[in-house]
């Protein structure tokens, strides 16, 4: 019988001596520079890589996570577009309201009631948007009120819905 002795490794222990009969092969494999007993790892194939099933499960989990993230990004972009349009509507309502106030200061409340401030927004981000100036009930402005109740309504359509921003105030002559 031959006796083979393995080298001492850096882990601080001396491997056992292995006695082999003549013609018997040593049941040791080298994996990544380390000697591994076949008996210790009976399923040696599992140490060499991933199976097809493991790869498919990992890809499925990654795909589900990616689709969820993309859906969240799409929803976030839609909310951002809505917030942008609402900000534009607020600015347009304030612009028209300042025109109403400017006319009231320059010419009086009677001139405000007879002036048409209604607009259609065509060159703006608010596609097919309209601006209407009425009293608080939605009727045309009258010239016998002081203070004059004014409602500026900005309407626009987004994704098949009609959205509205309303600014109400009272205008007096200074």
- Strand line-up in the sheet with most strands: 5-6-7-8
Mean pLDDT: 79
Rg over C-alpha atoms, rounded to the nearest angstrom: 40 Å
* Helicity range: 25-40%
Q: Number of DSSP helices?
A: 2
> How many β-strand stretches?
8
- Series of H and E elements: EEEEHHEEEE
Termini separation? 118 Å
Structural class: alpha+beta
What gross morphology would you assign? rod-shaped
Task: Tell me about the largest β-sheet.
Answer: 4 strands, antiparallel
**Which blocks of ≥5 consecutive residues have pLDDT under 50?**
none
Strand content: 25-35%
Task: Tell me what the structure shows.
By secondary structure, the protein is of the alpha+beta class. It has a domain of 91 residues. The protein has two helices and eight strands, in the order E-E-E-E-H-H-E-E-E-E. The protein has a four-stranded antiparallel beta sheet, covered by helices on one side. A two-stranded antiparallel sheet has the order 1-2. Strands 3-4 form a two-stranded antiparallel ribbon. Strand 7 and strand 8 form a beta hairpin. The mean pLDDT is 79.
Brief digest:
The protein is α+β, with helices and mostly antiparallel strands.
List the helices and strands and how they pair.
Elements: E1 2-4, E2 18-20, E3 28-31, E4 34-37, H1 52-107, H2 109-114, E5 119-121, E6 129-134, E7 148-158, E8 161-171
Antiparallel strand pairs: 1-2, 3-4, 5-6, 6-7, 7-8
């Amino acid at each position: 019988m031959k006796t083979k002795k393995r080298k001492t490794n850096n882990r601080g222990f001396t491997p056992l001596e292995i006695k082999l009969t003549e013609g018997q092969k040593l049941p040791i494999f080298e994996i990544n520079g380390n000697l591994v007993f076949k008996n210790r790892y009976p399923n040696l194939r599992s140490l060499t890589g991933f199976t097809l099933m493991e790869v498919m499960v990992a890809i499925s989990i990654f795909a589900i996570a990616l689709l969820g993230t993309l859906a969240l990004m799409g929803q976030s972009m839609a909310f951002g577009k809505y917030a942008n349009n609402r900000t534009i509507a607020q600015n347009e309502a304030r612009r028209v309201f300042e025109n109403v106030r400017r006319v009231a200061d320059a010419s009086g409340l009677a001139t405000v009631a007879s002036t048409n401030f209604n607009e259609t927004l065509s060159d703006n981000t608010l596609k097919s948007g309209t601006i209407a100036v009425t009293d608080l009930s939605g009727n045309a402005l009258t010239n016998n009120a002081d203070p004059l109740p004014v409602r500026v309504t900005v309407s626009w359509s987004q994704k098949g819905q009609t959205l509205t921003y309303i600014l109400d105030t009272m205008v007096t002559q200074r």
